[in-house]
Protein backbone atom coordinates (compact mmCIF):
# COMPACT_ATOMS: atom_id res chain seq x y z
CA UNK A 1 0.00 0.00 0.00
CA UNK A 2 1.35 3.39 -0.95
CA UNK A 3 2.35 5.66 1.92
CA UNK A 4 0.84 9.16 2.02
CA UNK A 5 2.75 12.28 1.06
CA UNK A 6 4.67 14.18 3.72
CA UNK A 7 2.87 17.11 5.30
CA UNK A 8 4.88 20.19 4.14
CA UNK A 9 5.45 22.20 7.32
CA UNK A 10 7.43 24.84 5.39
CA UNK A 11 4.19 26.05 3.82
CA UNK A 12 2.80 26.99 7.22
CA UNK A 13 5.98 28.44 8.67
CA UNK A 14 9.04 29.19 6.50
CA UNK A 15 10.98 29.99 9.68
CA UNK A 16 10.44 26.55 11.21
CA UNK A 17 13.99 25.26 11.52
CA UNK A 18 13.42 22.35 13.91
CA UNK A 19 10.70 19.68 13.93
CA UNK A 20 9.98 16.06 14.75
CA UNK A 21 8.73 13.54 12.23
CA UNK A 22 8.25 9.81 11.80
CA UNK A 23 10.04 7.74 9.15
CA UNK A 24 7.32 6.15 7.00
CA UNK A 25 9.38 4.63 4.18
CA UNK A 26 12.82 3.81 2.87
CA UNK A 27 13.23 4.67 -0.80
CA UNK A 28 15.82 5.06 -3.51
CA UNK A 29 15.78 8.35 -5.40
CA UNK A 30 18.04 8.72 -8.45
CA UNK A 31 20.07 5.78 -7.22
CA UNK A 32 20.58 7.21 -3.72
CA UNK A 33 19.02 5.84 -0.51
CA UNK A 34 16.45 8.16 1.03
CA UNK A 35 13.74 8.30 3.66
CA UNK A 36 10.25 9.75 3.64
CA UNK A 37 8.64 11.27 6.69
CA UNK A 38 5.05 11.79 7.74
CA UNK A 39 5.78 15.52 8.05
CA UNK A 40 8.76 17.63 7.08
CA UNK A 41 10.10 21.16 7.21
CA UNK A 42 12.73 20.35 4.57
CA UNK A 43 11.97 22.13 1.30
CA UNK A 44 12.69 19.94 -1.75
CA UNK A 45 14.30 21.37 -4.88
CA UNK A 46 11.41 22.76 -6.88
CA UNK A 47 10.26 25.80 -8.83
CA UNK A 48 13.81 27.00 -9.44
CA UNK A 49 14.64 27.01 -5.70
CA UNK A 50 17.44 24.84 -4.33
CA UNK A 51 16.78 22.17 -1.71
CA UNK A 52 17.30 22.61 2.01
CA UNK A 53 20.13 20.92 3.88
CA UNK A 54 20.37 19.92 7.52
CA UNK A 55 20.15 16.83 9.72
CA UNK A 56 17.78 14.07 10.74
CA UNK A 57 19.05 13.16 14.20
CA UNK A 58 22.78 12.71 13.55
CA UNK A 59 22.49 11.91 9.83
CA UNK A 60 23.30 14.69 7.37
CA UNK A 61 20.55 15.53 4.87
CA UNK A 62 22.56 16.10 1.69
CA UNK A 63 19.64 16.56 -0.71
CA UNK A 64 15.86 16.82 -0.72
CA UNK A 65 13.88 15.98 -3.85
CA UNK A 66 10.23 15.58 -4.78
CA UNK A 67 9.16 12.87 -7.22
CA UNK A 68 6.46 12.97 -9.89
CA UNK A 69 3.88 11.78 -7.36
CA UNK A 70 4.67 14.60 -4.95
CA UNK A 71 6.54 12.45 -2.42
CA UNK A 72 9.45 14.15 -0.66
CA UNK A 73 12.70 12.19 -0.45
CA UNK A 74 15.35 13.06 2.14
CA UNK A 75 18.70 11.79 0.84
CA UNK A 76 20.93 11.01 3.82
CA UNK A 77 24.65 10.54 4.33
CA UNK A 78 25.05 7.37 6.36
CA UNK A 79 22.66 4.68 7.68
CA UNK A 80 18.92 5.29 7.32
CA UNK A 81 16.85 5.52 10.51
CA UNK A 82 14.41 2.66 11.01
CA UNK A 83 10.88 2.84 9.62
CA UNK A 84 8.60 3.97 12.42
CA UNK A 85 11.37 5.83 14.23
CA UNK A 86 10.69 9.39 15.35
CA UNK A 87 13.52 11.67 14.28
CA UNK A 88 14.55 15.23 15.03
CA UNK A 89 14.85 17.35 11.91
CA UNK A 90 17.08 20.41 11.91
CA UNK A 91 17.16 22.77 8.93
CA UNK A 92 20.34 24.57 7.90
CA UNK A 93 19.05 28.01 8.94
CA UNK A 94 21.54 30.27 7.09
CA UNK A 95 20.95 28.35 3.85
CA UNK A 96 17.15 28.57 4.21
CA UNK A 97 17.27 32.30 4.93
CA UNK A 98 19.40 32.84 1.82
CA UNK A 99 16.86 30.89 -0.24
CA UNK A 100 13.96 32.89 1.20
CA UNK A 101 15.63 36.22 0.39
CA UNK A 102 16.54 35.07 -3.12
CA UNK A 103 13.08 33.73 -3.90
CA UNK A 104 11.20 36.75 -2.56
CA UNK A 105 13.74 39.02 -4.25
CA UNK A 106 13.13 37.22 -7.55
CA UNK A 107 9.35 37.77 -7.29
CA UNK A 108 9.91 41.46 -6.58
CA UNK A 109 12.44 41.94 -9.36
CA UNK A 110 10.24 40.11 -11.86
CA UNK A 111 7.38 42.45 -10.97
CA UNK A 112 9.60 45.53 -11.21
CA UNK A 113 10.99 44.51 -14.61
CA UNK A 114 7.45 43.95 -15.88
CA UNK A 115 6.33 47.35 -14.59
CA UNK A 116 9.37 49.35 -15.68
CA UNK A 117 10.37 47.66 -18.95
CA UNK A 118 7.34 45.52 -19.85
CA UNK A 119 9.71 42.57 -19.61
CA UNK A 120 7.86 39.49 -18.42
CA UNK A 121 9.68 36.63 -16.70
CA UNK A 122 9.85 33.40 -18.70
CA UNK A 123 11.83 31.41 -16.14
CA UNK A 124 14.09 31.86 -13.15
CA UNK A 125 16.85 29.92 -11.46
CA UNK A 126 17.97 30.39 -7.86
CA UNK A 127 21.34 28.65 -7.90
CA UNK A 128 24.09 27.93 -5.42
CA UNK A 129 26.28 30.75 -6.72
CA UNK A 130 24.06 32.83 -9.03
CA UNK A 131 20.40 33.69 -9.52
CA UNK A 132 18.98 34.42 -12.97
CA UNK A 133 15.75 35.65 -14.52
CA UNK A 134 15.11 35.00 -18.21
CA UNK A 135 12.91 37.63 -19.84
CA UNK A 136 10.73 37.64 -22.95
CA UNK A 137 12.41 40.73 -24.45
CA UNK A 138 15.32 40.94 -26.87
CA UNK A 139 16.86 44.00 -25.21
CA UNK A 140 17.02 45.62 -21.78
CA UNK A 141 19.14 48.71 -21.21
CA UNK A 142 21.11 49.52 -18.08
CA UNK A 143 18.89 52.48 -17.23
CA UNK A 144 15.71 50.37 -17.12
CA UNK A 145 17.50 47.70 -15.09
CA UNK A 146 18.69 50.31 -12.58
CA UNK A 147 15.16 51.72 -12.31
CA UNK A 148 13.75 48.25 -11.63
CA UNK A 149 16.40 47.60 -8.99
CA UNK A 150 15.63 50.91 -7.28
CA UNK A 151 11.90 50.11 -7.27
CA UNK A 152 12.53 46.74 -5.60
CA UNK A 153 14.70 48.25 -2.88
CA UNK A 154 12.11 50.97 -2.24
CA UNK A 155 9.52 48.24 -1.57
CA UNK A 156 12.04 46.50 0.70
CA UNK A 157 12.44 49.73 2.66
CA UNK A 158 8.64 49.94 3.04
CA UNK A 159 8.71 46.76 5.18
CA UNK A 160 5.58 45.52 3.39
CA UNK A 161 3.92 42.35 4.71
CA UNK A 162 4.17 39.11 2.72
CA UNK A 163 1.41 36.52 2.87
CA UNK A 164 1.51 32.99 1.44
CA UNK A 165 -1.77 31.07 1.40
CA UNK A 166 -4.04 28.66 -0.48
CA UNK A 167 -7.00 30.68 -1.79
CA UNK A 168 -10.35 29.22 -2.64
CA UNK A 169 -11.26 28.94 -6.32
CA UNK A 170 -13.34 32.10 -6.10
CA UNK A 171 -10.54 33.97 -4.32
CA UNK A 172 -8.01 32.76 -6.89
CA UNK A 173 -10.10 34.03 -9.79
CA UNK A 174 -10.29 37.46 -8.19
CA UNK A 175 -6.56 37.82 -7.56
CA UNK A 176 -4.45 39.97 -9.98
CA UNK A 177 -1.87 37.26 -10.65
CA UNK A 178 1.34 38.33 -12.39
CA UNK A 179 1.42 34.94 -14.13
CA UNK A 180 -0.90 31.97 -14.37
CA UNK A 181 -0.33 28.98 -12.05
CA UNK A 182 1.34 25.84 -13.40
CA UNK A 183 -0.96 23.56 -11.39
CA UNK A 184 -4.74 23.38 -11.25
CA UNK A 185 -5.36 22.15 -7.70
CA UNK A 186 -4.16 23.48 -4.36
CA UNK A 187 -2.69 26.63 -5.88
CA UNK A 188 -0.57 28.52 -3.36
CA UNK A 189 -0.23 32.27 -3.80
CA UNK A 190 2.38 34.68 -2.45
CA UNK A 191 1.22 38.27 -1.96
CA UNK A 192 3.91 40.92 -1.44
CA UNK A 193 2.15 43.96 0.01
CA UNK A 194 0.26 45.70 -2.79
CA UNK A 195 3.23 45.16 -5.13
CA UNK A 196 3.04 41.60 -6.47
CA UNK A 197 0.73 38.58 -6.47
CA UNK A 198 2.11 35.33 -7.85
CA UNK A 199 1.40 31.60 -7.57
CA UNK A 200 4.34 29.89 -5.83
CA UNK A 201 5.07 26.91 -3.60
CA UNK A 202 8.46 28.09 -2.36
CA UNK A 203 9.68 29.48 0.95
CA UNK A 204 9.48 33.25 1.26
CA UNK A 205 10.22 36.05 3.69
CA UNK A 206 7.31 37.22 5.82
CA UNK A 207 7.96 40.91 5.12
CA UNK A 208 9.97 42.74 2.49
CA UNK A 209 12.51 44.13 4.96
CA UNK A 210 13.78 40.57 5.53
CA UNK A 211 15.00 40.50 1.91
CA UNK A 212 17.50 43.16 2.94
CA UNK A 213 18.77 44.23 -0.44
CA UNK A 214 18.45 43.25 -4.10
CA UNK A 215 20.97 44.12 -6.78
CA UNK A 216 21.28 43.35 -10.46
CA UNK A 217 24.72 41.87 -11.07
CA UNK A 218 24.60 41.63 -14.85
CA UNK A 219 22.64 41.64 -18.12
CA UNK A 220 23.33 39.33 -21.06
CA UNK A 221 21.68 38.04 -24.19
CA UNK A 222 20.64 34.40 -23.92
CA UNK A 223 18.95 32.46 -26.71
CA UNK A 224 17.89 35.67 -28.39
CA UNK A 225 16.35 37.15 -25.24
CA UNK A 226 17.65 38.87 -22.11
CA UNK A 227 18.94 37.19 -18.96
CA UNK A 228 19.28 39.13 -15.70
CA UNK A 229 21.69 37.90 -13.04
CA UNK A 230 20.88 39.17 -9.56
CA UNK A 231 21.59 38.61 -5.89
CA UNK A 232 19.62 39.26 -2.73
CA UNK A 233 20.04 39.33 1.03
CA UNK A 234 23.31 38.08 2.49
CA UNK A 235 24.63 37.12 -0.93
CA UNK A 236 24.04 40.64 -2.31
CA UNK A 237 25.69 42.24 0.72
CA UNK A 238 28.67 39.88 0.47
CA UNK A 239 29.17 40.70 -3.21
CA UNK A 240 28.86 44.41 -2.52
CA UNK A 241 31.38 44.17 0.32
CA UNK A 242 33.89 42.31 -1.86
CA UNK A 243 33.52 44.85 -4.65
CA UNK A 244 33.99 47.66 -2.14
CA UNK A 245 37.22 45.99 -0.98
CA UNK A 246 38.42 45.92 -4.60
CA UNK A 247 37.57 49.59 -5.10
CA UNK A 248 39.38 50.55 -1.88
CA UNK A 249 42.45 48.56 -2.97
CA UNK A 250 42.43 50.31 -6.35
CA UNK A 251 42.08 53.66 -4.61
CA UNK A 252 45.15 52.92 -2.50
CA UNK A 253 47.16 51.90 -5.57
CA UNK A 254 46.02 54.99 -7.47
CA UNK A 255 46.52 57.22 -4.40
CA UNK A 256 43.03 58.67 -4.73
CA UNK A 257 39.66 58.43 -3.05
CA UNK A 258 37.28 55.57 -3.96
CA UNK A 259 35.03 57.99 -5.86
CA UNK A 260 38.00 59.03 -8.03
CA UNK A 261 38.94 55.48 -9.10
CA UNK A 262 37.16 55.72 -12.51
CA UNK A 263 39.05 58.92 -13.35
CA UNK A 264 42.30 57.34 -12.18
CA UNK A 265 41.76 54.30 -14.37
CA UNK A 266 40.91 56.51 -17.35
CA UNK A 267 44.17 58.41 -16.79
CA UNK A 268 46.09 55.12 -16.75
CA UNK A 269 44.32 54.04 -19.94
CA UNK A 270 45.35 57.24 -21.71
CA UNK A 271 48.93 56.84 -20.53
CA UNK A 272 48.95 53.22 -21.69
CA UNK A 273 47.64 54.22 -25.12
CA UNK A 274 50.34 56.87 -25.39
CA UNK A 275 53.00 54.35 -24.34
CA UNK A 276 51.76 51.85 -26.90
CA UNK A 277 51.90 54.48 -29.62
CA UNK A 278 55.43 55.42 -28.59
CA UNK A 279 56.42 51.76 -28.51
CA UNK A 280 54.96 51.33 -31.99
CA UNK A 281 57.05 54.20 -33.28
CA UNK A 282 60.20 52.78 -31.69
CA UNK A 283 59.38 49.31 -33.00
CA UNK A 284 58.99 50.78 -36.48
CA UNK A 285 62.41 52.42 -36.32
CA UNK A 286 64.02 49.24 -34.94
CA UNK A 287 62.31 47.12 -37.59
CA UNK A 288 63.48 49.48 -40.32
CA UNK A 289 67.07 49.36 -39.09
CA UNK A 290 67.12 45.56 -38.84
CA UNK A 291 65.38 45.09 -42.20
CA UNK A 292 67.67 47.54 -43.99
CA UNK A 293 70.75 45.75 -42.67
CA UNK A 294 69.42 42.32 -43.70
CA UNK A 295 68.41 43.55 -47.16
CA UNK A 296 71.76 45.27 -47.70
CA UNK A 297 73.58 42.05 -46.81
CA UNK A 298 71.38 39.94 -49.11
CA UNK A 299 71.70 42.39 -52.03
CA UNK A 300 75.47 42.42 -51.69
CA UNK A 301 75.44 38.61 -52.02
CA UNK A 302 73.05 38.77 -54.94
CA UNK A 303 70.28 36.90 -53.06
CA UNK A 304 66.55 37.55 -53.03
CA UNK A 305 65.82 35.35 -50.03
CA UNK A 306 66.59 37.12 -46.75
CA UNK A 307 67.22 34.77 -43.82
CA UNK A 308 67.50 36.35 -40.39
CA UNK A 309 67.30 35.59 -36.66
CA UNK A 310 66.09 38.28 -34.27
CA UNK A 311 67.12 37.68 -30.66
CA UNK A 312 64.48 38.26 -27.96
CA UNK A 313 62.06 39.58 -30.57
CA UNK A 314 58.31 39.60 -30.23
CA UNK A 315 56.09 38.30 -33.00
CA UNK A 316 55.03 41.89 -33.68
CA UNK A 317 58.64 42.92 -34.28
CA UNK A 318 59.29 39.91 -36.53
CA UNK A 319 56.20 40.81 -38.55
CA UNK A 320 57.29 44.44 -38.80
CA UNK A 321 60.75 43.47 -40.07
CA UNK A 322 59.21 41.09 -42.62
CA UNK A 323 56.87 43.82 -43.80
CA UNK A 324 59.77 46.22 -44.31
CA UNK A 325 61.76 43.58 -46.25
CA UNK A 326 58.90 42.50 -48.52
CA UNK A 327 58.07 46.09 -49.37
CA UNK A 328 60.72 45.44 -51.99
CA UNK A 329 58.53 43.26 -54.18
CA UNK A 330 61.13 40.76 -55.38
CA UNK A 331 62.35 39.75 -51.89
CA UNK A 332 61.38 36.88 -49.58
CA UNK A 333 61.79 37.14 -45.79
CA UNK A 334 62.49 33.97 -43.76
CA UNK A 335 62.77 35.20 -40.19
CA UNK A 336 62.93 33.73 -36.70
CA UNK A 337 62.64 35.24 -33.26
CA UNK A 338 63.63 33.58 -30.01
CA UNK A 339 60.67 33.76 -27.64
CA UNK A 340 59.76 32.17 -24.32
CA UNK A 341 58.93 28.52 -24.86
CA UNK A 342 60.26 28.23 -28.41
CA UNK A 343 61.21 29.91 -31.65
CA UNK A 344 58.67 31.85 -33.68
CA UNK A 345 59.23 31.71 -37.44
CA UNK A 346 57.71 33.65 -40.32
CA UNK A 347 57.93 33.46 -44.10
CA UNK A 348 56.64 36.28 -46.30
CA UNK A 349 57.10 37.26 -49.94
CA UNK A 350 57.01 40.49 -51.87
CA UNK A 351 54.35 41.29 -54.44
CA UNK A 352 56.38 40.19 -57.46
CA UNK A 353 57.72 36.94 -55.97
CA UNK A 354 56.19 33.50 -56.62
CA UNK A 355 57.82 31.86 -53.57
CA UNK A 356 55.37 29.49 -51.75
CA UNK A 357 55.73 30.54 -48.11
CA UNK A 358 53.15 28.07 -46.78
CA UNK A 359 54.76 25.04 -48.41
CA UNK A 360 58.26 26.14 -47.35
CA UNK A 361 57.36 26.70 -43.71
CA UNK A 362 55.45 23.44 -43.47
CA UNK A 363 58.52 21.51 -44.68
CA UNK A 364 60.90 23.50 -42.47
CA UNK A 365 58.73 23.04 -39.37
CA UNK A 366 58.41 19.31 -40.00
CA UNK A 367 62.18 18.97 -40.34
CA UNK A 368 62.74 20.91 -37.10
CA UNK A 369 60.09 19.11 -35.06
CA UNK A 370 57.77 22.09 -34.89
CA UNK A 371 54.56 23.19 -36.52
CA UNK A 372 53.70 25.80 -39.09
CA UNK A 373 51.98 26.63 -42.33
CA UNK A 374 49.89 29.20 -44.09
CA UNK A 375 49.22 30.78 -47.45
CA UNK A 376 51.67 31.09 -50.36
CA UNK A 377 52.00 34.79 -49.58
CA UNK A 378 52.62 34.43 -45.84
CA UNK A 379 53.05 31.72 -43.22
CA UNK A 380 53.92 31.47 -39.52
CA UNK A 381 54.95 28.73 -37.13
CA UNK A 382 56.68 27.75 -33.91
CA UNK A 383 59.77 25.56 -33.53
CA UNK A 384 61.49 24.11 -30.46
CA UNK A 385 63.80 26.46 -28.57
CA UNK A 386 67.45 26.48 -29.59
CA UNK A 387 66.85 25.57 -33.23
CA UNK A 388 69.46 26.87 -35.71
CA UNK A 389 67.01 28.65 -38.01
CA UNK A 390 69.54 29.74 -40.58
CA UNK A 391 70.70 26.14 -41.07
CA UNK A 392 67.12 24.77 -41.17
CA UNK A 393 66.01 27.45 -43.65
CA UNK A 394 69.02 26.97 -45.92
CA UNK A 395 68.62 23.18 -45.89
CA UNK A 396 64.91 23.43 -46.70
CA UNK A 397 65.61 25.79 -49.58
CA UNK A 398 68.20 23.38 -50.91
CA UNK A 399 65.86 20.36 -50.92
CA UNK A 400 63.50 19.65 -53.83
CA UNK A 401 59.87 20.73 -53.42
CA UNK A 402 60.44 24.45 -53.03
TrEMBL record:
PROSITE patterns: AA_TRNA_LIGASE_II_ALA. InterPro entries: Ala-tRNA-synth_IIc_core, Ala-tRNA-synth_IIc_N, Alanyl-tRNA_Editing_Enzymes, DHHA1_dom, Thr/Ala-tRNA-synth_IIc_edit, Transl_B-barrel_sf, tRNA_SAD. It holds the Pfam family tRNA_SAD. Gene3D superfamilies: 2.40.30.130, 3.10.310.40, Threonyl-trna Synthetase, Chain A, domain 2. It is found in: Cytoplasm. This is Alanine--tRNA ligase. PANTHER family: ALANYL-TRNA EDITING PROTEIN (PTHR43462), ALANYL-TRNA EDITING PROTEIN AARSD1 (PTHR43462:SF1). It comes from the Bacteria. It comes from Polyangium fumosum. Its cofactor is Zn(2+). SUPFAM superfamilies: ThrRS/AlaRS common domain, Translation proteins. GO terms for cellular component: cytoplasm.
Amino acid sequence: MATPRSSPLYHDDPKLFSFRGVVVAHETHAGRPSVRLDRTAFYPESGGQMADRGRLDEAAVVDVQVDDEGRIHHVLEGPLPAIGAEVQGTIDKPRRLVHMAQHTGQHMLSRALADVARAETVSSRLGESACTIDLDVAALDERAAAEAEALVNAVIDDDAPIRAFFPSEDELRALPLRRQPKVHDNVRVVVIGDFDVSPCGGTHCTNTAQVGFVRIDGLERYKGKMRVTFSAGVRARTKLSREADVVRALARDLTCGPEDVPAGIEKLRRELDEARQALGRVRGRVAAAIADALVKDARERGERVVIGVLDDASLDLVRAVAGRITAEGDLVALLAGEAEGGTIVLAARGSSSDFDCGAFLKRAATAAGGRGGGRPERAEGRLPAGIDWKTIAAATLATPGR
